[in-house]
Write a structure and sequence with these properties.
2 domains; alpha+beta; two-stranded antiparallel sheet; 9 strands; single chain; NTF2-like_dom_sf; 5 helices; Nuclear Transport Factor 2, Chain: A
C-alpha cells in the first residue's frame, strides 16, 4: 500500500498533498495549522493514563535539566543514539551545538515555562509527547513554541529520542525549527531562496 495524503487548513482549503513519504507534521502545524487563539501558560493538561504519566514525568525531567543547565540529568534522559532527523542535518553540513554549549548560562532558556503537556503511546516501545513552550524575553505576549518529543522504551524506562520545537502562533507562520538529540541541537531556518542551519532558535 502507498500512503497518499492531503492537508486542509482551518478554513477548509487545501495547502499541500503528497504520496509515499508522510509529511513532517510539526512543520505542517507551524506553517498551516497554527492555533486559532493565543495560548496561555495557565492552560490545564488533559487527564492521562498511568503510562502517559510515565512519559510526562520524564518530560518534566527534561525541561528541568534544560532550564537549570543540569548536564548529567540531560544525558540520563536521552537515548544513546542520534536521531535520524539530526543526522540528516549534520550529514548535509549543518552545524550542531552540543549540550555543553546549549546549557551554558545565557544560552539555556532559564525562565521558560511550559503548558498543556500531552502524551500519546503509539506502541509498547514508542511514544510521543507535546507541550507549548513560553520562552523568556520573547518580546510579545503571543510568542510561543510547539514542542514535540519522541520517546523510546528501554527496559522499564522511557528515553528521549528526539526533541523538536517550532514557532507556533496565531499571528505568523513558523520560519524555523529546532531539532535536538543525545549529542546536541541543530536549527533550521527557511528564507525565500535557501535553507540554512546552525545556531539556536527560540
Amino acid at each position: 500500500r502507498k500512503l497518499v495524503w492531503f492537508g486542509l487548513n482551518n478554513n477548509g482549503r487545501s495547502f499541500a498533498s503528497g504520496s509515499g513519504e508522510p509529511p513532517r507534521l510539526v512543520e505542517v502545524l507551524g506553517q498551516n495549522l497554527r492555533p486559532v487563539e493565543i495560548l496561555l501558560e495557565a492552560d490545564e493538561a488533559v487527564k492521562m493514563t498511568t503510562e502517559d504519566d510515565a512519559v510526562l514525568s520524564v518530560q518534566k525531567k527534561f525541561y528541568s535539566a534544560l532550564t537549570t543547565g543540569d548536564r548529567e540529568a540531560m544525558a540520563s534522559v536521552f537515548t544513546k543514539d542520534q536521531a535520524t532527523e539530526v543526522s540528516e542535518v549534520t550529514g548535509s553540513g549543518g552545524r550542531i551545538d552540543n549540550w555543553d554549549a546549549c546549557l551554558e548560562d545565557g544560552a539555556r532558556p532559564e525562565d521558560m515555562q511550559i503548558s498543556g503537556s500531552d502524551a500519546l503511546i503509539v506502541s509498547p516501545e514508542v511514544a510521543y509527547s507535546t507541550a507549548v513552550e513560553f520562552p523568556p524575553n520573547a518580546g510579545i505576549d503571543s510568542a510561543t513554541l510547539l514542542a514535540v518529543q519522541r520517546w523510546r522504551k528501554e527496559g522499564d524506562e522511557w528515553k528521549l529520542s528526539l526533541h523538536q520545537t517550532i514557532p507556533w502562533s496565531p499571528d505568523s507562520k513558523a520560519g524555523g525549527t529546532l531539532l535536538c538529540s543525545c549529542n546536541g541541537c541543530v536549527a533550521l531556518t527557511r528564507g525565500k531562496d535557501k535553507r540554512t542551519s546552525g545556531g539556536i532558535v527560540g
